[in-house]
Write a structure and sequence with these properties.
Structural class: mainly alpha
Shape: elongated
Number of domains: 2
Helix content: over 70%
Order of helices and strands: HHHHHHHHHHHHHHHH
Distance between the termini: 71 Å
Oligomer: single chain
Radius of gyration: 29 Å
Largest sheet: none
Strand content: under 5%
Length: 404
Amino acid sequence: MIDKDLIAFLVTVVFSFLIGLEVRSYREYFHSRFEFGSIRTLTFTGLLGFVFFKINLYLYISGFIALTLFFLLFYYFKLQENKASIVTFLVVAITYSFGPLSLIKPFWFIALIFVILIFGLNVKRMYPKLTQKIDIYELETFAKMVLLSAVILPLLPKTKLPYIELSPFKIWLIVVVISAISYIGYILQKYIFSNKGYFLTGLAGGAYSSTATTVVLASKATQNCLNSITAGIIGATAVMYFRLIIIAYIFNHQVAQKILIPYIALGIGGILVAIFYLKKDLNIQKSEYVDSNPLELKTAFIFAFLFIAMIAITKFIHTHFGNIGLEILSFIIGFTDIDPFILSLLTGKFSITLALIAKLIFIATASNNFLKAFYSYFFSKKRCIISTIWLIVFGMINIVLAYI
């Protein structure tokens, strides 16, 4: 077995050498602005840090202090020439730390630092291209997304509120989901797929929530419902059918057999319809993309309010009608989140026949499609008529499937 110190030594030397190569490339690209050595200097710096740390921690710290004092003097003289840059010191200091890091930390840690260092040295080369595509508004939008998901969400309590049985965490999670789908669609549309971004957003979002995805895409169509938006809304519902088949097979194979053929037909049909409308946009010349609201926070809050209202209505129906009103409940439940209801059916929460379970799934899916048709019409300010009609058609087909 190879000695751990030998492995750490080799890692230190190799990474220091590669950093030296990158620094040399950096120096040549920017006409010798990085003036403190390159390959040999940084290789020996990494090696020195390794040796000093192995001998004594205080010797290593003394070496770092000496290195810092040297750079203070170096920096002072460079200030006189207006060529000073602290990047030089940062690179050398990090390289000096490779030795102890390779000895006390796992390999992935030093490898990650190495990759970030290489990337950091190359950012300056990419800077002109980045500034042409990304403005300060993009960073502000990203910061808002982080605030919503990584700062506010974890702080909210998970205790369920009375009657609606939803926690503040779950309610805010709805806002985060809507904003995340909107933000991903914005990135796809602006930077990656000019004419296919909305369609891909629909497919990806439909795998999680076709309802939330419909709300997001419809809200993008308040001025003009592009064919790609129509394709995305229809595509999200098509993916929903495949998602429900998978859920059914996982929890109740017999029920899955009953909905398999109809839902495969509806899913494939929805994808074909979506592609038909998408193709109408593919030949359109790419234009400057403008989206003043990539997070759709207003839409997210409205949707969260409607979701809570539907939960309250569902609770009222279930309380007053019990299992006798299951068909009514299955229709009402489609106006909220159908997955929990369908899971309760598939896992035997209600003592009913397989045929009735399939029927209730068809009814819940139908009402969910009607709800999405309303959302498509309402959030687009009556612009997305085509997608609204198709969602109603899908809903009617599900009603027919439920009662034939």
